[in-house]
Design a protein that fits this description.
about 180 residues; Rossmann fold; 5 strands
């Protein structure tokens, strides 16, 4: 089976790739993350993924859209529920790419994170699969999260401190300021 794996970052992807390959799935990575800001963060995550993909001979498709303004427009009316729109942007584009690229299925490294809304992502991916007529390959990668993070540190990967969008970065700093008097 040929699967297009949407990749949010190398630390989240390493175990997803291993699990899928152990299942004899032919994996191609897909970088599409218009939510990641600022540009220095976007570039650091993308470049780390590029290096990792090259080191394991993973085919990687990049849709290199640093799209601050379109992302902000997409979530501006409901910032508190922005994750739903963010999942839609990335998973629908992954499904479209999978269909157009002749892949049998698609999935995402987002499914490894215990910090993401897993059920909302799954429902969104299923809608994308239905719209584009390509299979959504569901895997709950969360049991591999810690192992993936440990491996990422051992390999010297860039390790981000927040989900990716400017609003999640803001929340990270607001939480810190509440802790520090």
């Amino acid at each position: 089976m040929k699967t297009l794996l949407h990749i949010c970052c190398a630390p989240c992807a390493n175990q997803c790739i291993e699990v899928l390959q152990a299942e004899k799935t032919e994996v191609t990575g897909f970088w599409y993350n218009p939510n990641i800001h600022p540009f220095t963060e976007y570039r650091a995550r993308r470049n780390c993924l590029r290096e990792y993909a090259a080191s394991i001979a993973l085919k990687l498709i990049e849709q290199n859209d640093y799209a601050l303004r379109p992302f902000i427009r997409a979530v501006a009316e409901d910032i508190e529920n922005r994750c739903e729109k963010c999942y839609e942007l990335r998973l629908f584009e992954t499904a479209r790419q999978a269909k157009e690229g002749g892949f049998d299925s698609f999935t995402s490294s987002l499914f490894i994170s215990p910090y993401q809304n897993h059920e909302l992502m799954r429902e969104t991916a299923e809608r994308a699969a239905a719209q584009f007529g390509v299979e959504f390959l569901y895997r709950d990668f969360r049991p591999y999260f810690r192992e993936g993070q440990e491996r990422a540190r051992a390999l010297g990967f860039y390790m981000q401190k927040y989900c990716g969008c400017v609003f999640s970065e803001e929340e990270r700093y607001l939480k810190k300021s509440k802790i520090i008097p």
